[in-house]
Amino acid sequence: MTTTAHDSRTYGYDDLPGLMSLMTGDEKHGPAATSTLDVLWVLYDRVLRVTPERREDPARDRFLLSKGHGPMAYYAVLAAKGFVPADWLPGFGAYDSPLGHHPDRVLVPGAEIGSGSLGHGLPIAVGSALGLRAQGLHDPAVWVLIGDAELDEGSNHEAIAFAGPAGLERLHTIVVDNSSASHARPGGIAARFEAAGWSAVSVDGRDHEALHAAFTAAHPGRPHVVVARVEPKAG
């Protein structure tokens, strides 16, 4: 557990709804945020090798939030883990707040990319994994979280098709599937990645133990995708 810079409290998973409730206003994209909450918590609490003190360390793991159009869960987890102060949360979306409706890597400590436009995060993650490998940095893992609707974007399919044959073993993708994609995938989402040479696992996106097991599964020589199924988006 960690604390925020201006708060002596320690925060756990049960505190996340309260932290999210501090962020109010229009254009919240609530379902986009709540669908990612458990995935983000398990990653930051049990998997990612990055801390506020190590966020500039070349050997850190990288987490890229491609699904950046609903970042409240992300901000809540960053606050719980000490990357940003919790007293920033009530200002969410205000003109003078660093916490915008889309994350800005220049303004949000711990954010690796500015995101929210669909279809960008996975290609950036592929480039990040390639760049780390070219530098001889074989230990850091690259993680990217996308939504199932992002698979409507062709840029993601180019990235999927490249990463498998390239053997980007340190690349990990999480697809949060809330049934919001316009186009169905024959055989399901995991099958699309498997066809391109990825290791793939589908799990309940609310089950923390299942998520942790899927995130830490061995996948030698191949990139890895976890399809985290959650309740369908309403409306």
TrEMBL record:
The keyword Metal-binding does not apply. Coiled coil: none annotated. The keyword Nucleotidyltransferase does not apply. Keywords: Thiamine pyrophosphate. One of its GO terms (molecular function) is magnesium ion binding. Pfam families: Transketolase_N. Residues 29-226 form the Transketolase N-terminal domain. SUPFAM superfamilies: Thiamin diphosphate-binding fold (THDP-binding) (SSF52518). Its cofactor is thiamine diphosphate. Belongs to the transketolase family. This is Transketolase. It comes from Streptomyces alanosinicus.
